[in-house]
ArnT-like N-terminal domain-containing protein (Halotalea alkalilenta), 473 residues
Amino acid sequence: MLAIALGMLGLRFVSMVWVPYIDTTEPRYAEIARLMALSGDWVTPWFEPGVPFWGKPPLSFWLQALSIKLFGLSEWVARLPAWVVTAVTLWPIHALARAWAGWRAAAAAVMIYATCALPYMMAGAVLTDPFLALGTTLFMAGLILPQWHWRLLAAVGLAIGLLAKGPLALVIVAGPAVMCLLAYRRRVWPAISARGWLAGFVVVASLAVPWYVIAESRTPGFWDYFLLGEHVQRFLQSGWSGDLYGTAHRQAIGVIWLDWLVATLPWSPLALAMLAAALRHRRGRVALLRLIRRPMTGYLIAWALFVVLFFTLSRNILWTYVLPALPAFAILTGRALVLVGRRLKSRRSPALHAIGTAPALFVPALALLATIAICIHPAAVKSEKVLIRQVMSMAPPGATLWFVDSRSFSARYYSRGQAALVSSEALPALVASTEGSIFIAARPDVMARLQTVLPLTALPLANSRQYRVGRIR
């Protein structure tokens, strides 16, 4: 099972190399990392030249920009840090599962996490969530495992979370601990001395706090926007209008549970089926109740459920928010798979092997098929990679491609910041003041309107799913 997990993550490289950045989030973050690598400013991420990006702390951008510095500009390069971080996350999952339920359950947990829909997709994406998941997983494992190096890694993990996503990391790790204290009224984790807590606080503060102080001094207003806007108003206000860098996501209350179900495919139906089977018989209910009474089991359940419960009443959410809860889900489901195997009277049961390996192929196979489909028909996805390449091949050196009224993030990235933005009202003045050919891209309805007032020549070979391209003169 461990080999399956590593093999599936290796297969993820195919999509990382061949799939272009698809609007909106991935090219937006890739462009921020590109600007960081280009400018050499390792303190402030920049949304575009002159506009600081206050939406996220810089850890993911640091690693993506460093990867760009080392390997150049390519899709897999900026995606590589998330892949490495996801692979590293398997380590604390395996260590915690092995300490709780043995090496077979640990191998199953690693396989389940690596082949769940959300972790598998995040393993090859330019996003911040895999870094948050690593930080929270290190903390949750380090709080339980008694060895001194795990205590140190717990502090490092919290610092990673604070530099990857912000104070939300503290909420995510504190919530399950409080739930366990309320449920069991005693410590779940090994005793930690006051000196140990102080040392952990010093580690976290020394790693995470300096950047927050320097960031505010460099671009005043960061604290107000990031701490209040991104961490309070975003989750309390449906369709939050204060987002400076995109649009808020208006969702129905409770949709996070559906997000969890999708994020854990194909394992969630199997996990729910095993739970239903246990509840169907009295012997299974007794065994399940006995297991839940153990503090360690309760700790994992609280870890698996807290994030989903926390975001239940929030409307402004994404399915990626459930990622920090999935290591605990993987450990619990891995343990259940092993128990099923024991009930089949053989730890090497072919039935267990089939139960464990068949679902593991589901998400990687779908991702591979999607990659092949995108390579055959790249215009099917919202990406301007092909459009930019085709326009630049026919335009004279130094020519500017003007996007009218709107410009996608992928257009900004693939043009290396050379795709300019102009309003349809200002376009006639631009045409009048410019000699030579002008290349423009616009949404189909905008392009149809412009063709009635400007001498546009359509360039259909350069069209994309989102934009139509034309040339003036």
User: Anything to note?
Assistant: The CA atoms of residues 404 and 422 lie 5 Å apart.
